[in-house]
From TrEMBL:
GO terms for cellular component: cytoplasm. This is GTP cyclohydrolase 1 type 2 homolog. Coiled coil: none annotated. Gene3D superfamilies: 3.30.70.120, NIF3 (NGG1p interacting factor 3)-like. It comes from the Bacteria. Keywords: Metal-binding. It comes from Pseudonocardia alni. Pfam families: DUF34_NIF3. Residues 374-395 are annotated as: Disordered. Homohexamer. A divalent metal cation binds at residues 65-66, 104, 340, 344.
Length: 395
């Protein structure tokens, strides 16, 4: 038997809340963490359709990608659309949980699911999150018991932690030199006499957020009146976290065929799938970004991909992108624009797999196939035909 708390723990481990953008609203929206959960429904949107499905299917939890309460509210009265959904969920004993931008950035996350649906082998994020900000402190301690004292003080202040290891350091032997001047109170030597002392060079990494505490611990524990030390900012490490993904197809194919591949891989919508580029252009290296991704157009160009698949592309950014022709990564990629909902729907299966694996045998999972894309109908254009890229002739 599993509780809502168990399911939330599994989802938080896969999509850590700390990865969410500061404007986002993620996590448990309603529900008692101690309630029993035996069935979970996954969907992109919290809408009347998915709430109906959760209640009618006997689910005790609805997990969605998009938040119900993204912006601050002053009330959730049942006479408001969102309040009515919350009241229905609570009355039916169904909890609501959201993983939004934290699921976008996570590894694997929303764009990994999209890439997998398209048959891409992912090599990394399109816009990597910077790795942890690290410093390295290097100090010089006279040979003797002071070395252990300084090492312990630095470790206790947060230095020397690498993954699942603590108290990590490197030490080398050398000779320190100093000349105490008037007013000094040297621990070793005397004023006016040049001293050479056998010392150990001690190096330890530390989170940049612990810099002040580590330096204070060094000054307090070091035997010298004026301890010498270097504090170095480390270059950020590559990260597997971030928005979007870059991957490759097993073999190149014409852009027209690739556009059809995208359409076949995603659920059908009134929006459909649109392509911008030479239909015969070979496509192999591809960037994807689930959800609205026109802010990542420049990143896709820098990545040197052949095509970029995302949602909600706007006219002007797409036109300017095509007009540029080339960028730092070479020719600008061809564009494939899909419906927002369709681009994120593959994530539902990924998230369901997270819960099924973590709570195997005690929780069943299901993915909603309700099309909650807001566009419900479409019609082919029937106006006068024009030549692509040319203005329509006037009468």
């Amino acid at each position: 038997m599993s509780t809502l708390r168990d399911v939330v723990a599994a989802l938080d481990a896969a999509y850590p809340p700390r990865l969410a953008m500061d404007w986002d609203a993620v996590g448990l929206v309603c529900g008692d963490p101690d309630d029993t959960v035996s069935r979970v429904l996954f969907a992109v949107d919290p809408t009347p359709e998915t709430v109906d499905e959760a209640i009618s299917s006997g689910a005790q939890l609805l997990v969605t990608h998009h938040p119900l309460l993204l912006r601050g509210v002053h009330g959730v009265g049942a006479d408001t659309p969102k309040g009515a959904l919350l009241h229905r969920l609570i009355r039916a004993g169904v909890a609501l949980f959201t993983a939004h931008t934290n699921a976008d950035v996570a590894d694997p996350g929303v764009s990994d699911a999209l890439a997998a649906a398209l048959g891409l082998t992912v090599s990394g994020p399109l816009e990597p999150e910077p790795g942890p900000a690290l410093d390295k402190i290097v100090t010089f301690v006279p040979v003797g018991p002071s070395i252990a004292a300084v090492h312990t003080a630095l470790s206790d202040a947060g230095a020397g932690a690498i993954g699942n290891y603590s108290h990590c350091s490197f030490a080398t032997a050398g000779t320190g030199q100093f000349l105490p001047l008037d007013g000094a109170a040297p621990v070793i030597g005397s004023v006016g006499r040049l001293e050479r002392v056998a010392e150990t060079r001690l190096e330890m990494v530390l989170p940049r957020s612990r810099r002040r505490d580590v330096v204070a611990a060094l000054r307090a524990a070091h035997p010298y009146e004026e301890p010498a030390f270097d504090l170095l900012e480390m270059a950020p490490l590559p990260s597997s976290l971030g928005l979007g993904r870059v991957g490759e197809l097993a073999a190149a194919e014409p852009f027209a065929a690739f556009t059809r591949r995208v359409a076949a891989a995603l659920p059908a919508t009134a929006w459909g799938v649109r392509g911008a580029g030479d239909p015969e252009r070979p496509i192999r290296r591809v960037a994807v970004c689930g959800g609205a991704g026109d802010s990542a157009l420049n990143s896709a160009t820098r990545a040197g991909v052949d095509a970029f698949v995302t949602a909600d592309l706007r006219h002007h950014p797409a036109s300017e992108h095509a007009l540029a022709g080339t960028g730092p990564g070479g020719p600008t990629p061809a564009l494939v624009d899909v419906a927002h909902w369709a681009s994120e729907w593959p994530w539902c299966g990924q998230a369901a797999g997270v819960v099924a694996e973590a709570l195997a045998g005690s929780v069943s999972v299901a993915v909603s196939r309700a099309r909650t894309d807001p566009w419900t109908t479409a019609a082919p254009s029937s106006g006068s035909d024009t030549t692509a890229g040319q203005p329509e002739a006037s009468a």
